[in-house]
Amino acid sequence: MKRIFWVIIVLGTAALSSAALTWAARAETPADALKKPLPPVFDPAAIQSVEPCVDFYQHACGAWLKATPIPSDQTIWWRFSELDEHTRAVLAAILEEAAAGQGAKTENRRKIGDYYASCLDEAAIDAKGLKPFAPDLERIAVLKDKKDLAAEIARLHFIGAAPLFSFSSVQDPNRQSLVWARVGEAKA
User: Fold this and answer.
1) Is residue 111, in this structure, part of any structural domain at all?
2) Phi and psi (nearest 5°) for 114?
3) Is residue 51 in some structural domain?
């Protein structure tokens, strides 16, 4: 049981810490990303002189692929990656502005700012240590058998921790009225 306890702790902590990553950990700030122009909706310069009937992807994106290296912190990079980065930068700028108390003075904006700022207060997080996890650790420590373990894994999945495996749904590509259950590796 102790081994299972530590597996759940490690996987749960990894899931929570990956969700807490911020722009502060990145080399580029949201303000820097916002200064970059958005990619054009249609870029004629991205089209290459490859026959579209031979290789449409190379025809549509070949020049862009040659001109755009994959950033060192990415494993893949495609046209929508630039838009995705911009969207993240806009959202991060909104969060940072709300945390600094700037912008519209609404109750929801204050809550968003306070919540975001609390995630960035590393000194307070470090001072608390594992204390916020005490109820979960106590719940795990009293597990007696496989039935209790299954119930705890289900509870952790319900709150979004996804220990041991991930569980999601995917639409059947052939019959749109059907949805499949998908079980995969734990999300880290």
Assistant:
1) yes
2) -65, -45
3) no
Residue 4 CB-density burial (10 A; 0-12 exposed, 13-18 middle, 19+ buried) = middle
Q: Report the number of distinct structural domains present in the chain.
A: 1
Task: Specify the residue for token string 């700030």.
Answer: 29
Residue 46 lies in a domain: no
Q: Which domain holds residue 29?
A: 2-35+69-185
CA-wise closest residue to 159 among 176, 135, 177: 135
**DSSP symbols for 60-74:** HHHHHHHH-PPPTT-
List CB contacts of 135: < 8 A, sequence separation 6 or more. Answer: none
Express each pLDDT in 25-64 by its tens digit. Answer: 445 666 676 777 776 667 777 777 788 898 888 888 788 8
User: Alpha-carbon distance 118 to 124, whole Å?
Assistant: 8
Q: Taking Cα atoms as reference points, which of 16, 23, 146 lies closest to residue 90?
A: 23
Cβ pair 59, 51 in contact under 8 A: yes
129 lies in a domain? Answer: yes
